[in-house]
Amino acid sequence: MSQTWTHVCSTAELLPGEMKVAFDAVTGTPIAVFNLDGRFYALEDRCSHEDFELSAGHFDPARGEVECVLHGARFDVRDGRALCAPAHTPVTTFPVKVEDGQVFVRDDR
Questions:
Q1: Residue 82 gets which letter from DSSP?
Q2: Domain ranges in the chain?
Q3: Nearest 5°: phi and psi at 11?
């Protein structure tokens, strides 16, 4: 398990309703970071139904969901759970920390 935090951006660069992708500094894992009403959440940037980037899809901040553009699977950005078929498996979540106005994530698997 990596203890290294990866810098994503400043909080001013990721406004509510926006998402940004970072790559873990140790594992290289793509991580999608979401600003949902001022709280930050991170998911592996990979649909659990088929290996495709979630960040290519639509983030709906009103519902707290991201939709995979490939087949329409939706996931809750807060906990990664699959919300509809064709996905049944949750997406991996990662810890986020905000320190001195900067957003960090890490692949803690």
A1: B
A2: 6-105
A3: -65, -30
Question: Which pair of structure tokens corresponds to residue 50?
Answer: 């088929």
The type of residue at 5 is W
pLDDT in tens, 8-42: 999 999 999 999 999 999 999 999 999 999 999 99
Domain with residues 6-105, CATH architecture = 3-layer Sandwich (2.102)
Task: Please name the helix (run of DSSP H) or strand (run of DSSP E) that holds residue 41, with its range, or none.
Answer: strand 39-44
Only one residue has tokens 């906990």, namely: 79
35 Cβ contact partners less than 8 Å away, ≥ 6 residues apart: 14, 15, 16, 17, 18, 19, 61
pTM, to two decimals: 0.96
Cβ partners under 8 Å of residue 63, min gap 6: none
- Compute CA distances 9 → 19, 40, 41, 69, 72, whole Å: 11, 12, 13, 25, 28
Contact 33, 8 (CB under 8 A): yes
The pLDDT value recorded for residue 57 is 97
